[in-house]
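User: What would this chain look like folded?
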Amino acid sequence: MTTTTPPALLYRIEDGVAIIAFNRPEKLNALTPDMLKSFFEHVDQAAVDPSVRVILVTGEGRGFSAGLDLSVIGTGVSKTTTLTPPEPVSKQWGDDIGPDLSRYFGNGWNALITSRKPTIAAVNGAAFGWGFILSLHCDIRFAGESALFNATFARLGVPAEKGIGWLLPRLIGIARAADLLYTARRFDGREAERLGLVNQCLPDAELMPHALQYAKQIAQNAAPRSLAAMKAQIWSAGDDCYDQAFQAADREQDLAVQTQDFLEGIGSLREKRSPQFKGQ
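Assistant: Here's the prediction, encoded as structure tokens.
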């Protein structure tokens, strides 16, 4: 009798939400190069799918991701995980909407940022090393009370890897980022909430129901074109001056009011009903 190895990534779409789950629970979802490549392929798949409005990332079992698999560390194999930048996504969701993110995010692990779909991490259990960094590439994070975060790099004798030295100070400030990076200490979901690293820490049993319902609410009630523009505005805001951002927002507003979704949004408010946005 042959046994089938379960896929290392699970992918499904539910009410406009693409759910991507790391699926090596016996290894706390530790990442292999093939697994990471597959993850970004799934992110790109969701990015070009018009039926997907939001991307939700989580882990099966007791962990989000314990980082790079220990069997890979020190072998040189991990160098292959600096992936070729993905091809541009469909223009319906792409760089024709809002600021051009390719100015800032042309390499590395940019797929979660450049997807133009809102991305949410539901962090259950361990989020160490590269697993921690992947969660930081998401727009919004929720954590369970049993979540444990760890920027392990100083303990391993390596620098702040894969953009975390850029991401972490922007999220929680230089002093707090320095504390987490220099000490390589573990901290839980409650402290992550206090630091502003996660939007909310919830009891473990409530984490996924809350994150999924939150994602579905965005998918149902927010115009996808607006979401694409807002995401680009948010991720480029720290590198543009106020005048550039204001002028870009005005240009985007002029385009948005010509769309069917704008008319639908106004109509649904006047008629006191849920909007039926089509991304047009």
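The two ends are 51 Å apart (CA to CA). If you want, I can go into more detail on any region.
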